[in-house]
Amino acid sequence: MTLAACATPAAPPGRAPLEPLPTLATLAPDAADLAARDAARAALASDAAALDASLERIALLDDERNRAGEARTGLLPYALDLQDATLDDARDRRRATRELLERDDLDASLRARLEAEVEDDPLRLANARLADARRLRVGRLMNAIFEPLGRSLLSGALVPIRLARSALGLALAEHMADDMSTPERQALAQWKSMIETEPDSPEAAALLGRVEESQRRWYRNQRTKTVRRARRALEAGDDASAFVLADRALHYAPEDRDAIRIRSAAEARIARARADRERSLGAVASPDLSGRALAVALLARGAAIDPEAERLLADDPKGFLADEARFARTIPLADAGDEARAWRAVEDVARRSGRGSNMARHAWAELASPEENPERAFRAARAEERGRQLRWLAFGPLAEGARDRDLPRSAEWALEVPALLDVVVGFPSRLVFFPWQKPESPAPAIFARRYLAREPDGVHARELREWLVDFEADRENWVTALAFAEQDPAANAGRLAKLRERAARQTLDGARKARRRDLRMALLRHTAQEWPDTEAGREAAGEARSLAEHATPQSIRVSRGFLRENPSLAGPEGLALRPELLDGELANGELHRQGVTFLGGLVLELAFVNERGQEGGEPVLRRERVSEERLARSVALLEEASLRSARLDPDLEAAPDADRDLFFERALLGLADAPDPRAAAESTYVFESARERYGMVRARESILPVDLVLQVSGTDLGLGAFPRVRPPKPTEDAVLYE
User: Fold this and answer.
1) 3-state class (DSSP) for residue 712
2) Residue 5 is assigned to a structural domain of this protein
3) Cα–Cα distance between 518 and 546 in angstroms, integer?
4) Same domain, 184 and 173
5) Residue 16 lies in a domain
6) Which of 518, 549, 580 delimits the end of a domain?
7) What is the secondary structure of 199-257 as a DSSP string?
8) What are the angstrom distances between the C-alpha of 328 and each of 56, 93, 305, 306, 346?
9) Residues 163, 250: one domain?
């Protein structure tokens, strides 16, 4: 029966899909409205007696309606909430709010707001964060026991080893962890907030001792972290950072010996560097002008072999300016394009001259400079990348040496002894995956690009260009691969054709993902003009033409599911859609799941299920021009429904959209009949129902803090099943305390 119903052809939308708007008579305030007015006025005037009288009047009106079999006004819970808001003491307000939550006549949105206010209690938040901290510690301990046991289903003999490794890992994690976890810092902040906002409460007095102790722990934690960072900076040669960090640590622990030692060492290094710089800047020029002729000749002759350099070498091969003369020989070679001989000559100067030679140091700097010698830097980066891959193949988790655990290096290596088992057992698996290892560092590509920019016709240009084509192709960056391939005059025509097709397809896919219409149009035009002879280029031309023909100022869509979830929006007070368009019966016409789209101005686009009744097929589109009143009503109810959904659904992330909000504001003011035609003003926001957002069954987090893990290890061919304690989800403000 279900299949037959789905196959039933849909009736075309013959008559108007929108019903006439009902005439809304001017509402005269009744007794309930007047009582609500009096309650608001009494609250603003801080008149407690008048507010109590207004609440009694609202309660009497509800009792009368209840006895008459009529619906209650629904005002009493809001009036009670208003009364609670006038209480001066925060504890009294929270207590009154908890009592209000016990009523069974609360609106869902009001209940959600009141629950959020109760949860915003600093003491409750602090206790919740402390519970998270305990769960983290207990979870680490339990996981350290259960995981090695569960991973040893097929290898029971490894249980003692894995348990020992897990215990060692837990101890090291505790050693590396902060003395004060992030949830504990959040709890400290809540305690401080409690003391500052409610200093006279008994809870605040009881918290003073805990706050002082936690503050001392926080200072110790900051000192430990800062000293650790300062030590690493000093070891890396970053003396300025080491000095600043050590000085900062002394603010937390003024007499700390480690911080004083690191700051003194960094200060001494900085002083030596400044002294060396001052000596260099204060050097007196030599009165010997024998090198002037060499400098003038080099500047005058450019690429010609300088006779002054040859004369100096002939007169005294080991003279004062002999190194300079040898280096001068390399300049004409480089200018003539003979880069191989030029770099060999520079290397000869660097190797023949002693360490005391200024020109030898200059030659070594020239050789090692990635800017001046990018080809050598490319080779070095490739060698480093291959070395990293070979180290991973040979040593696996120990490829980069012992992990940094803020311990003496010998102790860190001793702690890696258990990892030797993984190194040996996992070698066959690493051998299988080794051919598919991709480079991690972008350095080789950067140096290859730099070389081609400097030497597009150089000796190594074709080799590096081919490498870049293969590198970008492996990354599926076809546009860049094509750009390098086209620079080669001897490139294979068939390969170029394939790269063009893939580059065009990549650009077309990027254009389709662009949300802004002007950017999408620019990318489509670029694809069609750049690669007109490709299939993707022809598709881009068609889509650009269609986009230009059907472009609209706005494209704000409200799905059918959202309309069903919020019937007031589709009803007479909003869009006033015909009821049969949302009743699920295809025979009398049905709205497509795309729903209704606001196209800008006073135009709506309604999508209907096609005549074949295919929900997944292309919809039948119909545009309707509506009145300003209908548009304003619909927008008002749409915003109200969206805010209500955001309040009731804590997982809903309502993305900001300035263009959408601007269009809605203009519609509410009756100014939508003059749409903004700029592409940058278009909004493509979509309002969806909960089912459309989360699927048929919305995923819920289990109330149990434990997950069952099934694990297959490719390195040691192991199979495991064990429970794992799930850490608490970080709060949204946790990043502020890390």
Assistant:
1) strand
2) no
3) 14
4) no
5) no
6) 549
7) TTSHHHHHHHHHHHHHHHHHHHHHHHHHHHHHHHHHHTT-HHHHHHHHHHHHHHSTT-H
8) 102, 86, 9, 8, 9
9) no
How far is 702 from 708, CA to CA, in rounded Å?
A: 12
130 Rama class: left (phi>0) / alpha (psi -120 to 50) / beta: alpha
Q: Are residues 517 and 421 part of one domain?
A: no
Of the two residues 39 and 707, the one the predictor is more confident about is 39
Kindly tell me if the per-residue pLDDT of 729 is higher than 80: yes
* Closest listed residue to residue 465, CA positions, set 488, 493, 443: 488
Instruction: Specify the long-range contacts of residues 638-641, CB closer than 8 Å, at least 24 apart.
Output: 638/558, 638/569, 638/574, 638/664, 638/687, 639/664, 641/562, 641/565, 641/566, 641/568, 641/569, 641/687
Q: Are residues 568 and 672 in the same domain?
A: yes
Instruction: Supply 230's token pair.
Output: 């300062």
Q: Residue range 547-554: average pLDDT?
A: 88
Answer with the one of 656, 681, 706 that is the final residue of a domain: 681
- 660-705 pLDDT, tens digit per residue, is 999 999 999 999 888 888 888 889 899 998 888 877 555 566 667 7
Q: Are residues 596 and 540 in the same domain?
A: no
Domain range for 157: 121-177+695-738
Amino acid identity, residue 331? I
State how many domains the chain has: 7
Q: What are phi and psi of 238, to 5 degrees?
A: -90, 80
CA distances from 636 to 30, 75, 568, 640 (A): 24, 22, 11, 6
- pLDDT tens, position by position, 269-299: 999 888 877 765 654 455 454 555 555 555 5
Q: Are 124 and 171 in contact (CB under 8 A)?
A: no
Same domain, yes or no: 729 and 706: yes
In a domain, 7, yes or no: no
Would 687 be classed as within a structural domain?
A: no
Are 473 and 539 part of one and the same domain? yes
The DSSP annotation for 434-471 comes to GGG-----SHHHHHHHHHHHH-TTSTTHHHHHHHHHHH
CA distances, 535 to each of 494, 496, 508 (Å): 16, 15, 10
Question: Among candidates 211, 209, 213, 218, which has minimal Cα distance to 182?
Answer: 218
